[in-house]
Design brief:
alpha/beta, elongated, 24 helices, seven-stranded mixed beta sheet, 779 residues, 29 strands, six-stranded mixed beta sheet, 37% helix
Length: 779
């Protein structure tokens, strides 16, 4: 089916415009691609996100009338440049007006100093690029000329994407150069007439993509893209918002000739193209960043596969989504074969517009994300940047503004020797430094592929020697002096320094450091009498109260290790823990003793036994002695008791005094049950530096509103909790405290939670570590 001039649609819709019979306007259907921009403009009116701006520095004597004639002729040749859009019968249509002469606004900046002049140029560029085009009224192209010297100008051109694409820009420039060459020498235009116009293409497209043709093509894409594609979860610096900020920025890099040549040789040997090889590398990079094996990356195609379209300005661009399975631990050559097969299939079915694919497949829509993919790959030949037009030289300027429909776009330009690259990224999601790292990772990855293409993709290098040293050596060079004084000695020393200060507060009751030391030593003396000593295990089955802390500290003072026995645990679990640990003694209370199953351990009721305690004599406690035994949850089998030595606990506490930092002025709100190791940090960290432990009851620890009230009422400055607890507090309307240091651990912390918390605190610390590594191993 050839593309020919058509007046059928025009005739059908002439009634919509009474003056059309006079030749002022003609009407054609919008192409499928134009329809998408029309509807996006309706959803997000008044924005510049779909502008395609350009700026050019013109040097040499410029004939402005000849330049105006040049642009007038281009507008006359290409109906799309004088097209606007209106809705007819519920569908957008192209309204083509008669050509009018182009009159260039000229702004003379020569009176300014050079520095001021260049600043004004940039200001004008920003202003012009930010124009919000009205698709209904037009015009959809603006051109402004700045006079920056007697023989130097800057031309600023801006067009809405609905009437142009990158290929069209090359056509525009080629015609500009040719026509200006002729008109500046008073010669007639030398360009061949255009056989058709863009509106003829859109009418042909409407007629040709119907019925079985569409269904056959849609069946292919349904097979390839159906079933849902998980959004690409790149690690962003900022949370994806609902405001659809489409601003973009660029990071440049290059692939050196030696690597580029090796990749070209590899491509030829494997029977594919450099495009496919580098696309495979990009997909592997995204896989290494995200862990996604179902990898969808889109790529734009010119969609000018007919001779009649090659010299037309207009929006022909189509988007192909290339989906590849990277699962199974393949080598690069296997991935290359998979990407090659995917690419060949997609190009065989490229005629169906992306907009129709979306319409047919109906993916879940999110205005903040592109359907099917959030990353794009583009590979182009080297782009020309300087042209000769008559007696002038025209040089493309870098424009500082990009708009983003994708999260990230990798553009590669094959210069024949090196390969130049651009990572264009959403500034709403990423910081520049992050993308600079990504560009370096891509460089290292393709070097690794060139050196060893048979390598499994999980083993390909993406970091260079310097970054490897930083990750493995520099960042792990955390050795620091540690006193190795066991926790009882650290707390006793603090009690001597600040005896009158409040050590613990619970339900309105306060206990000073002096009272804490006295009661703990009394308990320790009694436990010693019963046989507690280093190497022994002593259970603790006490409710949340100051007595719980006295019990733990008293046990540690004997050199024995404490074993938490939560009275809320099922009896069977407590029985199993007691059977495995075989504690010599269990410290308990009258109201918690009933939770304990039958066992042979001696019982100490903390309420009654202390008055009979003999004088306490502090034993020598080795740093290697066990401080506590905590049982795992049993999620992987029978619960296991983890023994943690004093040296590990002391090392953790002393490091946490520095990062994130704690002092005697702090109040820490303790919310964690004693059966989790984090409770040890909540209790011991404040007590070794003179801070206050504000102990939450079990009921308050599970009530987000109660926790929020405690933070506000008691001037809490430090709190550790799980992400679930913090989410609960946010859901309850907690507004935060600007003096609060937040520690978040126990589960993975998501980026959206981190962002929400950061606005409500003085600092946020993401902490992690299994019980076996002593509470936290990373901060």
């Amino acid at each position: 089916m050839n593309i020919v001039k058509s007046d059928q649609y025009e005739t059908e819709n002439q009634a919509a415009f009474p003056d059309a019979s006079q030749g002022e306007v003609v009407v054609f259907p919008a192409s499928f691609a134009q329809r998408r921009f029309w509807f996006l403009d309706r959803l997000m009116p008044g924005g510049w996100a779909f502008n395609l701006p350009a700026a050019y520095r013109i040097r040499g004597a410029l004939d402005i009338p000849a330049l105006e004639k040049t642009f007038s002729e281009i507008v006359c040749r290409h109906e799309i440049l004088r097209t606007t859009f209106k809705e007819i019968n519920g569908e957008p249509s192209q309204i083509i007006s008669d050509p009018q002469p182009v009159r260039l606004p000229v702004i003379d900046l020569r009176v300014l100093e050079p520095a001021q002049r260049e600043a004004r140029v940039q200001s004008h560029i920003e202003s012009e690029f930010g124009v919000a085009f009205n698709l209904s009224t037009g015009p959809l192209m603006t051109i402004t000329l700045l006079k920056t010297g007697d023989d130097e100008h800057v031309l600023i051109k801006n067009m809405h994407h609905i009437i142009t694409d990158l290929w069209s820009e090359e056509i525009f420039l080629a015609e500009w150069v040719s026509l200006y060459q002729s008109f500046s020498q008073n010669k007639p235009a030398s360009l061949d007439p255009l056989p058709i116009q863009y509106a003829d293409f859109s009418e042909w497209q409407r007629q040709s993509l119907q019925g079985e043709v569409v269904e056959r093509e849609a069946a292919y894409w349904r097979k390839k893209l159906g079933g849902g594609i998980e959004p690409l979860s790149l690690p962003t610096d900022h949370v994806r918002g609902a405001d659809t900020n489409l601003s973009g920025a660029v990071v440049k890099f290059s692939i050196q000739r030696q690597t580029a040549d090796a990749l070209r040789i590899l491509s030829r040997r494997e029977g594919t193209t450099l495009f496919v090889t580098l696309l495979a590398a990009f997909k592997i990079l995204l896989y290494r960043y995200t862990g996604h094996t179902d990898m969808a990356v889109s790529t734009p195609i010119t969609n000018r596969n007919r001779a009649e379209l090659e010299k037309l300005i207009g929006f022909f661009l189509n988007t192909l989504v290339l989906r590849t399975d990277l699962g199974g631990g393949p080598g690069f050559l296997e991935v290359l074969a998979r990407v090659r097969e995917t690419t060949l299939g997609a190009f065989e079915h490229q005629n169906l517009p992306f907009e129709v694919v979306v319409e047919k497949l109906q993916p879940a829509r999110d205005l903040t994300q592109h359907p099917f993919s959030q990353a794009m790959f583009i590979m182009l030949p080297e782009m020309k940047s300087v042209w000769k037009a008559g007696g002038t030289t025209v040089e493309a300027m870098e424009v500082g503004r990009n708009s983003m429909e994708q999260d990230i776009i990798l553009s590669l330009y094959d210069k024949g020797d090196a390969i130049e690259g651009l990572f264009t990224y959403s500034v709403a999601l990423f910081d520049r430094q992050t993308i600079e790292h990504m560009a370096r990772h891509f460089q290292v990855l393709v070097e690794s592929i060139a050196a060893n293409p048979a390598c499994p993709i999980d083993d390909l290098q993406i970091i260079d020697d310097a970054e490897r040293a930083q990750l493995l050596v520099n960042w792990n060079d955390t050795a620091a002096p540690c006193s190795l004084t066991p926790v009882p000695g650290l707390i006793a020393a603090q009690c001597a320094r600040t005896p009158a200060a409040t050590a613990i507060e619970f339900a309105g009751r306060k206990m000073s450091y002096a009272e804490l030391l006295d009661r703990s030593q009394r308990l320790a003396a009694h436990l010693q009498k019963l046989g507690a000593r280093p190497g022994q295990l002593v259970g603790v089955c006490v409710g949340r109260s100051p007595e719980m802390i006295v019990s733990v500290l008293g046990i540690l003072m004997t050199g024995a290790a404490y074993v938490p026995l939560d009275p809320q645990f099922p009896s069977a679990r407590l029985g199993q823990m007691i059977a495995d640990a075989a504690p010599l003694i269990i410290v308990t209370q009258r109201n918690t003793e009933a939770a304990l199953p039958e066992n042979s351990a001696q019982r100490v009721h903390i309420e009654n036994e202390l008055s009979l305690a003999p004088e306490f004599r502090a034993p020598e406690i080795s740093p290697e002695s066990i401080a506590y035994v905590l049982f795992t949850s049993g999620s992987t089998g029978r619960p296991k008791g983890v023994e943690v030595p004093h040296r590990a606990l002391t090392n953790l506490l002393e490091s946490m005094l520095k990062t994130p930092g704690l002092s005697s002025a702090d109040t820490l709100l303790a919310v964690t049950t004693l059966s989790f190791d984090i409770a040890g940090l909540e209790i011991f960290l404040p007590l070794i530096c003179g801070a206050k432990v504000l102990l939450a009851s079990r009921e308050n620890a599970q009530d987000p509103r109660a926790l929020a009230a405690m933070i506000a009422k008691s001037n809490v400055s430090v709190m550790q909790a799980t992400p679930a607890t913090w989410r609960g507090m946010l859901a309850a309307g907690w507004e935060g405290s600007q003096k609060l240091k937040i520690l978040c651990g126990g589960e993975a912390m998501t980026r959206d939670l981190a962002s929400a918390l950061l606005t409500r605190c003085s600092s946020l610390w993401n902490v992690y570590g299994p019980t076996e590594t002593t509470i936290w191993s990373t901060v």
